[in-house]
Design a protein that fits this description.
Shape of chain B: flat
Radius of gyration of chain B: 28 Å
Shape of chain A: flat
CATH topology of the largest domain in chain A: N-terminal domain of MutM-like DNA repair proteins
Number of domains of chain A: 4
Largest sheet of chain B: 7 strands, antiparallel
Largest sheet of chain A: 8 strands, antiparallel
Low-confidence stretches of chain B: 1-52
Oligomer: heterodimer
Strand content of chain B: 25-35%
Structural class of chain B: alpha+beta
């Protein structure tokens, strides 16, 4: 008991110290106004910054039949016009109820998602009632800030209920992983201002302009917060102008640098008339991507949309060096891509249109749909996608082929065999499947002799066989002996398994 | 409970540790001796009565049957295969066997560059040599050339193998040949393969002391086995019949043990039985894999159901049960003929199988395993092949290499190589192809930019699969003699590497000098 009181006492002292610090900070900000007036905060936060409270569904992919858990979370957003509030996709993913409030409002308002872009972690929400917008002031999106310039991050992070403002500088500008989708890389701004849970979706400001959206931080380092830069925000806003979000295009070139002098000589890259510092060697093309059908393995890409590519794969973009894939990252679907390439000892020009590819769609976290699964004879089958991998990977250490086929999907050409793998992930104990444990955590290769390409072909082949009273002969990768499920056994076990394990639906298939 | 009674027993037998007790013991011994002499004049101590009740075997008899070997091993660095590193010298005890040989565990001596033997009667060291080494059975025969070395040594007579439940004494000797004895009881039998594919019967018992570096199992005054493996209170004992079998056959240069070379899966699941057309009245186990170059190769086929071996029925989980003893042995134990005598290479077994729904009788001639099944070997000989070219080191993928690079949990560390190991470890037909790996990139101007590509399989060499290092060497030689300027390599991830053949000698020379690599690769 005493310890508890003591702890509370410390909290009070801590709060008091914080308050003091805050006051000092405010008074200290005077000279800053004088020296760098452009970067100082010049908005009324209460008119523009929105606290977003969300109740969302979270699915357990290891028990995909179970009811979703309701998760409460909160983030930040800001008005970008009379109606739209910009925030992060991860703030509103799977949202069932959204409540919005500005810090100068006495009540909260119900909100709804208008657009969500998981590949760049941005979303637009709006209030359902016009009353919310009384006295609101939208913010303007500015230009990318300079490296080292000062910024303010606004939001509603943990640690209190009122709005928080933290300050820092832009400490790095680089391509980085957007951890929400787990596979997409875009430009990011690294800042040293404190960014904490709840800051997500909040604006980073210079003067009266938004120069970034706070979205993630790096644990393990110190003061490593990340912002989504204006270029990614603008691209998203342009994309949704037509009323729907199309997503990123995929250049689809897998390449290696050409620093090696022997490789350069063998490829003829040292010939007269060719810039000696240029080029990346193409080692693979992602199927269905923009480059598919135009660029070939073995080509050396010298220029992309007029930007010279260095032998390390960088381009000069407005004075800063960035990976060459940055050049096409902001292109909309259907935009033209121009390449200067080196093929068979001569320079050639190529042009093609930017397009997205869905080949790696299953490697991207899905937040919008309930999990897909099917249970036959108590055996649980699921598509091996990012959600399942994330939930189950620690339990699959003894099955390296699962991790291999998932993480080398493009590199090892597994996309030629399948769109996505289907895995027998779990056995719900039943008298009909007692002897079948050996098949769990294995990938289905064939159903009744027919190779399957994805969960949908698996499900339709299996269902049609069972519906016709045929037996299901399932072949697995890395297992010699097929698993046989008879229609009788499946039918006989169904009611029992539903009752034993409280399962409402024996399968779920989402529309594609 | 067992430990307590063991301690009691060892107190009674260990004459050297407790002088006071010893006197008492000797007095009792004298009484017993006198009584015995009175009852059966001339019988002496050596008319050993029942096992376990006998007068303990004397230290001198044990000392005469053991040789201490100081082993100086060298360890191989698989990432720098030309380099050797002196390992920690170790002391192991070998068992004196007839024909002036010493029997040891193969793994203790396989990498020895120097071995010195010492016996109880002298502090001198005599040089010892490995005469025959078999990693499949993990046994080796050692000779000692010094004249007269064996004159005052005497192999213990061999008794029958111990039965499950029998008690015996585990003995090890310390550095001055003083005996430590411990009571043990055989708890169960099992069949193991230390390395490789040759399964041998071992007996499991518990033991307190560390018997890892060799130990004798004695009952009465006879040898019943040697400690093959000891860890955390458990010992595995190699029965004396197996030791003798190995010795007799090794002396005439013949392999002692056969390996079956097939893997069985269960036939319990009704749906699986139906799929393989297995009648309900039959029992048997499914043949899941047959390894090339083994006894079962060209005899059994994948998807056969093995029903019986020499008339003994195989059950649905792959065991052969003995109705009289109640013991269940894995079907591989057919190598044990009755009690504990082993089948030999050359013996013929009758196999009853169900193939595509038809019963057939097949004859399988037992063979020793002499390689041929593994694409990714579990063991490398002391001079593993390597190929050094243009600042790159190429190796054939092996288990020791994986263990060295990624540690004992290597399976979780590199999903690609783990997957290759799981799916391609064995040949499915006789083959010589290996997984060629780019193992090292030596920093040099000609390898700049390729440093990150190490430990990746090589997919293509000038458009051809490298097959193995011998074939890859040939491809390179052909390119060189054809006057080609470059060698193009593609790794499993699609990465391209180009090797300069024009300045080949100069580059190879430079790399060898800079990184102190001996002149010739193998």
């Amino acid at each position: 008991m005493q310890g508890k009181w003591k702890a509370k006492g410390w909290v009070l002292v801590y709060l008091a110290a914080n308050l003091l610090l805050f006051i000092v900070l405010l008074s200290a900000s005077g000279p800053v106004y004088a020296t760098e007036p452009d970067n100082a905060l010049k908005i009324d936060p209460g008119a523009s910054i929105v606290k977003i409270e969300v109740r969302s569904f979270v699915y357990d992919y290891t028990k995909p039949w179970s009811e979703p858990r309701v998760q409460a979370s909160s983030g930040t957003g800001f008005l970008i016009n009379k109606e739209y509030i910009l925030t992060n996709a991860h703030v509103v993913s799977g949202a069932k109820f959204i409540h919005l409030s500005r810090s100068n409002q006495e009540r909260e308002f119900e909100g709804e998602v208008v657009f969500v872009a998981h590949d760049c972690d941005l979303a637009i929400v709006r209030a359902k009632k016009a009353e919310f917008y009384h006295g609101a002031q939208p913010l303007r999106i500015g230009q990318r800030p300079e490296l080292g310039s000062e910024i303010n991050v606004l939001g509603f992070p943990i640690g209190g209920d009122r709005i928080s403002i933290t300050r820092g500088i832009v400490s790095r500008i680089d391509m980085d992983l957007y951890s929400h989708s787990q596979i997409d890389q875009h430009l990011t701004l690294q800042v040293d201002a404190a960014i904490n849970p709840g800051n997500s979706g909040g604006p980073a400001m210079q003067g009266a302009e938004v120069i970034g959206v706070a979205f993630q931080s790096l644990r393990g380092g110190e003061n490593l917060g990340y912002l989504i830069p204006p270029s990614v925000i603008q691209k998203f806003l342009v994309d949704v102008e037509d009323g729907k979000y199309d997503g990123y295009i995929e250049l689809g070139v897998i390449s290696q640098d050409t620093r090696n002098p022997v490789l350069r000589r063998a490829a003829g890259l040292n010939q007269a008339g060719l810039a000696s510092e240029t080029g990346v060697l193409v080692t693979g093309i992602m199927p269905g991507s923009s480059a598919d059908g135009f660029v070939r393995k073995g080509d050396v890409i010298l220029e992309i949309n007029g930007h010279k590519i260095s032998q390390q794969g960088d381009v000069d973009l407005n004075g800063s060096r960035q990976p060459y894939s940055m050049v096409t990252d902001n292109l909309q679907n259907g935009a033209r891509i121009d390449l200067l390439i080196w093929r068979q000892n001569s320079q050639q020009k190529l042009h093609f249109l930017a397009r997205p590819t869905n080949v790696i769609a299953h490697l991207r976290q899905d937040y919008d749909n309930p999990p897909e699964y099917a249970i036959f004879n108590g055996m649980l089958f699921q598509p091996l996608n990012a959600n399942l991998m994330r939930a189950a990977v620690s339990a699959w250490k003894d099955r390296p082929e699962l991790l291999y086929r998932y993480s080398y999907f493009v590199r090892a050409g597994i996309y030629k065999q399948v769109d996505e793998d289907v895995v027998l992930s779990y056995r719900l104990g039943d008298r009909n499947n007692t002897y079948l444990d050996r098949y769990t955590r294995r990938i289905v290769s064939k159903v009744n002799g027919k190779a399957i390409r994805n969960f949908h072909t698996f499900l339709s082949a299996s269902r049609s066989a069972l519906d016709q009273g045929q037996k299901l002969v399932l072949e697995f990768r890395g297992e010699d002996v097929p698993l046989v499920i008879t229609a009788d056994a499946d039918a006989e076990s169904q009611a029992r398994i539903q009752q034993f394990y409280g399962i409402q639906k024996m399968a779920n298939q989402n529309e594609k | 409970m067992k430990n307590k009674s063991g301690a009691e027993y060892s107190g009674r037998t260990c004459g050297t540790c407790h002088p006071a007790f010893n006197w008492k013991k000797m007095a009792w011994g004298l009484v017993v001796f006198v009584l015995l002499q009175l009852l059966w004049p001339g019988s002496g101590f050596h008319a050993a009565p029942l096992d376990g009740q006998a007068e303990p075997i004397s230290d001198i008899a044990l000392q005469k049957s053991i040789v201490q070997l100081k082993v100086y091993p060298v360890s191989r660095n698989y990432l720098y295969p030309w380099s050797k590193r002196p390992g920690q010298p170790l002391t192991v005890f070998g068992i004196v066997v007839p024909h002036k040989r010493v029997l040891v565990r193969a793994e203790d001596v396989r990498s020895a560059v120097l071995m010195q033997a010492r016996k109880y009667s002298s502090y001198e060291l005599a040089e010892a040599k490995v005469e025959h080494l078999d990693m499949e059975s993990n046994l080796a025969l050692v000779t000692i050339d010094q004249p007269g070395f064996f004159d005052d040594l005497l192999a213990l007579p061999a008794g029958p193998d111990l039965a499950v439940g029998a008690t015996a004494v585990a003995v090890k000797l310390d550095s001055v040949f003083q005996a430590y004895r411990e009571d043990v009881r055989i708890q169960r039998q099992k069949v193991v393969a230390d390395f490789g594919f040759t399964h041998l019967p071992v007996q499991v018992c518990q033991g307190d002391a560390d018997f890892a570096s060799g130990g004798l199992i004695i009952a009465g005054h006879t040898l019943r086995g040697m400690v093959a493996y000891a860890k955390s209170g458990t010992m595995e004992i190699l029965p004396v019949s197996v030791m003798n079998e190995y010795r007799k056959r090794a002396l005439v240069g013949q392999p002692a043990f056969a390996s079956a070379g097939f893997y069985l899966g269960s036939m319990i699941d009704p749906a699986r039985r139906e799929y393989y057309q297995m009648p309900a009245n039959l029992s048997g186990a499914l043949v899941k894999r047959v390894l090339p170059g083994t006894s079962a190769w060209n005899v059994l086929q994948k998807n056969d159901v093995l029903l019986a071996i020499d008339g003994k029925l195989v059950d649905n989980a792959g065991y052969i049960g003995d109705a009289q003893t109640g013991q269940k042995l894995p079907a591989l134990m057919h190598f044990v003929k009755g009690g504990s005598s082993l089948r030999h290479p050359g013996d013929v077994l009758q196999l009853q199988v169900l193939r595509k729904g038809q019963q057939q009788t097949l004859e399988m001639t037992l063979k020793a395993y002499r390689g041929g099944a593994e694409r990714i070997p579990w063991l490398l000989n002391e001079e593993p092949p390597y190929l050094l070219e243009g600042g790159f080191l190429f190796l054939e993928l092996s288990l020791p290499l994986l263990r060295q690079v990624y540690g004992s949990d290597w399976k979780g560390r590199n999903p690609e190589l783990s997957m290759i190991f799981n799916s391609r470890q064995f040949y499915t037909k006789p083959g010589q192809d290996r997984i060629v790996i780019l193992a090292q990139v030596f920093p040099d101007p000609v390898t700049r930019g390729f440093e990150g590509f190490r430990m990746q399989p090589v997919r293509l060499v000038n458009g051809k699969a490298p097959f193995n290092l011998t074939r890859m060497r040939k491809i390179i030689a052909d390119q060189v003699s054809a006057g080609q300027a470059f060698l193009h390599l593609e790794l499993s991830g699609g990465q391209q590497i180009v090797v300069d053949l024009q300045n080949r000698d100069q580059i190879n020379q430079r790399i060898k000098e800079r990184y102190a690599i001996p002149a010739n690769d193998t």
